[in-house]
Design brief:
two-stranded antiparallel ribbon; membrane; about 20% helix; 3 helices; 6-stranded antiparallel sheet
Length: about 160
């Protein structure tokens, strides 16, 4: 077999690719099936960070300059420890909104975490009282925001059954 591979390098390449593919598939199935549910499927850290851009001398912009970052909770228990409050009612197809500060207060965050019925974060809702472009949508009221605003839902998991069934 080794002499065949030496005489025909294309066959050696194909055999190497097949073996590599097999090892990759075995590893990926092993890692996927070993999820013990201890961590949220979006990862172990939820980080919200802003970026900014500055204009250089040649008129170009350089992005990625970080202004601040904040680690957000992944479970409702973590959120409660950080003084987040989950809304009592679940919005079908969305989930439970939660707020760190009351909407319309001076210290209100411009986003709301969205939890499912298992108390795991499944998304984030950004809102603005100022008009925003696509993909933001104008909303009359949503969750803890009982007034007209612009909103953007970002889901990390399917929210179809977020209310538990």
């Amino acid at each position: 077999m080794i002499t065949t591979i030496k005489e025909k390098p294309f066959i050696g390449l194909v055999i190497t690719l097949v073996i590599g593919l097999a090892i990759g598939l075995i590893l990926s199935f092993t890692l996927i099936s070993s999820n013990d549910g201890a961590s949220n499927s979006i990862g172990s850290i939820f980080l919200l960070a802003t970026g900014s851009a500055e204009t250089g001398s040649a008129g170009y912009t350089r992005s990625g300059i970080q202004a601040w970052e904040q680690t957000l909770p992944l479970t409702l228990n973590e959120a409660r420890n950080l003084r987040w409050k989950k809304e009592v009612s679940c919005v079908s197809g969305v989930g439970y909104y939660s707020r760190k500060n009351a909407a319309k207060s001076a210290a209100a965050e411009s986003y709301s975490l969205i939890f499912d019925s298992k108390d795991k974060v499944i998304g984030i809702y950004f809102y603005s009282e100022n008009q925003q472009g696509y993909p933001w949508q104008q909303v009359q009221s949503a969750g803890p925001f009982p007034y007209p605003h612009w909103g953007l839902h970002i889901f990390f998991q399917d929210s179809t059954n977020a209310c538990g069934g």
